[in-house]
Amino acid sequence: MPTGKLSDVIVIGAGMVGAACAYYAAGAGLRVTVIDRGSVAGGTTGAGEGNLLVSDKEPGPELELARLSARLWTELSGALPARIEYEPKGGLIVAADEPGAAALRDFADRQRAAGVTAEEIPADRLHDLEPHLAPGLAGGVHYPQDAQVMPALATAHLLRAAGNRIRLRLGEEVTGLLTAPDGTLRGVRTTRGEVHAPYVVNAAGAWGGELARLAGVELPVRPRRGFVLVTEPLPRVVRHKVYAAGYMADVASGSATLQTSAVIEGTPAGPVLIGASREHAGFDRTLSPQALQRLAAGATALFPVLGTVRAMRTYTGFRPYLPDHLPAIGPDPRAPGLLHACGHEGAGIGLAPATGFVIARCLTGGEPPLDIGPFDPGRF
Amino acid sequence: MTDSASEPYDLAVVGAGPAGLAGAVAAAELGLGVVLLDASAHTGGQFYRQPAPQARAARPEALHHDWSAYAGLRRRLAESSVRHLPGHHVWSITHEAPAWSVHCLTGDDGSDEQPVRVRARAVLLATGAYERHLPFPGWTLPGVVSAGGAQAMLKSGLVLPGRRIVVAGSGPLLLAVASSLAAAGARVPALVEASGYLAYARHPRALAANPQKAAEALVHGAALLRHGVRLRSRSAVTAVHGTDRVEAVTVTRLDRTWRPVQGSGRRIACDALAVGHGLVPQIELATALGCATRTSADGTSALVLGPLQETSVRGLWAAGETGGVGGVRLALAEGELAGIAVAARLGAGRARGSRIVQLRRRRDRMRAFADAMAAAHTPGPGWRCWLADDTDVCRCEEVTAGRIREAVDDLGARDARTVKLLTRAGMGWCQGRMCGPAVACLAARDGAPEPPPERRPFAVPVPMSVLAQCADQPNTAP
């Protein structure tokens, strides 16, 4: 088993993105040490729904990353145990009125041109896909490439799949970066000592900005809070990931005020998950009755059958938000040896494999699988 | 949604057990407008639980200590202006300046169509406690009941869980349960207590200051002797035998850390087992509002309270078990103290300073005793050795000890939250009330377990249609 001194790369953060970076780096032959101040999947990964989406992404660099990730997730689902609950269930976006439906169709046309599979669903066919949908909707678009995974289990099993090339140091917080007199990176200082390696990957998610500051560079990651409602276990009443057309506008918005759009999906374990609210409220975990009320109202409007179903619990998480809604992936030109893999906002689970794949290529000097210019951490 | 009044009450008391009753009555007698909410149809809470009217109990008080204290409070309640709302299940409390909103489901089981929102300038949380369970092989077999559940069956239904009942676990409740079961006609072949009773002797001052506690123990002790109940301390039920229901249990001696002593197991025939490991403060309404908590001597989370029972959140008071499990007399004192303190804050009446001094002294004395008692009954880390890999730990989601050990040893879980994410332990109907303490111990490996954070944003499950109308609502008079 490699010791602390024999790591080729240190990954900070044992969430989904950190796990994917470690997995692909180990697959490229590197010895990896993953450090987290908490548990595996203890941050945003453990507070998400596990969305693997192409449907909500405009043509552009993020969609390219999502398409690569979708292919890699298919591979991973074969390599990892079935317990990660990978489900290629497909997404269904619905519009309440005709202008909304027209906008959806236009959006889908542009995505199709970028290689996404998107099938228009007229109003009278919506119930073939989702029998419990409310009546009177104007239409929708079906995205068979959308999928879902249980993010905490996927992270844990990904970290284990690479065997002893990945070493985990949990409950250990990074307090500083170590540099040689000539400025080259030597590793990190933690609450339990020093760990040495020539490369450090910042996969600290919503806390990635703080980590960057330890290296003396600025990365404007901010937490964008979200609540998820969880119902009592049900037989399958929601088959796809279903959401209303307003969701894309909320994702793309930079507004600090509360935005909610119902995103509804069943899980193999039975409970239905209902997202998604977005607001900038720092790392405040206080329950927002207003956010929960809007989520419940949105969900019962789309699926009236949920009205009598009980919500068992709710949880909150912090999406790592960057102002241009693109993650920071790749070497930091301002701090040689430091790479970033954070700032994926609400898409981190979906974008993780492609991110890890890119990072592994950067570490081994290979050619990235796509143009990573738009993700350059030095762009801020 | 129905708002109970267009003007807020001065004080909403959540829970009509000893602490809530005492607080509501004290505040109302000082001139406050008080509303008293409880899920049950009766006042009295878990402690003064009463038979249903159809049971036609001639003397329900025969099963209770301190019935006179309750009878007195009930009379004062009837004479007061307190509005008692039975059948109100509080699922959340929110603050919308200048008042608190207490959100309730209504009906016996909370399933009535019409939710209710009660507004109040101050809130007193007297939500009591629930039982702590530690799993062991066979604990899911029919015939195994919780110690508190056996007591409740007796008090409310006047029925016994079996004819030959072993009482086991840890804590002072076991003495009371064993003596009431025996008095009601059951055979109790053994009372199995995991701690050593001598542990109290380490706190002679707390004991000496609380003579009525020693007297209580003597009364129970004498009753047990009379009924031929054998006390086995430093022992535990480590297995239950039977195919369809309990036929026997294995009682094993424990070392100081509660690890079973090899070869010391003895089989005792019985048809029921009443088992409990003390109580856990029920504080989720408070933690959802950000109230500070502390780890009490028995390893549970309790609210941090000021000298006059206020939580760390201004305007939110708590009394009784929410501040740490301490029993009925402490609850009565704290409830009254909180009621007086709220009245003083809201500028009502004139509280007698001497009464406050007296109540504070009484509370401090009883708290010290409660802490000593709690320390003596804290589960030792060795109890985890009772578990086989196939023992269910989370009954709702059927998660075994083996799955939890895998999450901790192989998958990187270091706390109860991550164990829950990776195994679903604690995600079911009881929301971890049953398995939380056990999961926390397993997650801590050999370190001291962090108590579960008692975070349940919904204190009871809420219909989505109720949630969909809970905020943004104008006030409407009834």
UniProtKB/TrEMBL annotation, chain A:
Coiled coil: none
One function term, GO molecular function aspect: oxidoreductase activity
Superkingdom of origin organism: Bacteria
Record field: transmembrane: none
UniProt key word Glycoprotein: no
Listed PANTHER family: FAD-DEPENDENT OXIDOREDUCTASE DOMAIN-CONTAINING PROTEIN 1, SARCOSINE DEHYDROGENASE-RELATED
Name used for this protein in its record: FAD-dependent oxidoreductase
Species in which this protein is naturally found: Streptomyces morookaense (Streptoverticillium morookaense)
Species lineage: Bacteria, Bacillati, Actinomycetota, Actinomycetes, Kitasatosporales
Automatic annotation (TrEMBL), chain B:
InterPro entries: BFD-like_2Fe2S-bd_dom, BFD-like_2Fe2S-bd_dom_sf, FAD/NAD-bd_sf, FAD/NAD-binding_dom, Metab_Enz_Cyan_OpOx_G3PDH, Opine_Oxase_asu/HCN_bsu
Superkingdom of source: Bacteria
Domain FAD/NAD(P)-binding: from-to ranges: 9-326
Cross-referenced Pfam families: Fer2_BFD (PF04324), Pyr_redox_2 (PF07992)
GO MF entry, a single one: oxidoreductase activity
Domain (BFD-like [2Fe-2S]-binding): residue spans on this chain: 393-440
Keywords attached to this entry: Oxidoreductase
PANTHER family hit by this protein: ANAEROBIC GLYCEROL-3-PHOSPHATE DEHYDROGENASE SUBUNIT B
The protein, known as: FAD-dependent oxidoreductase
Organism: Streptomyces morookaense
Organism placement in taxonomy: Bacteria, Bacillati, Actinomycetota, Actinomycetes, Kitasatosporales
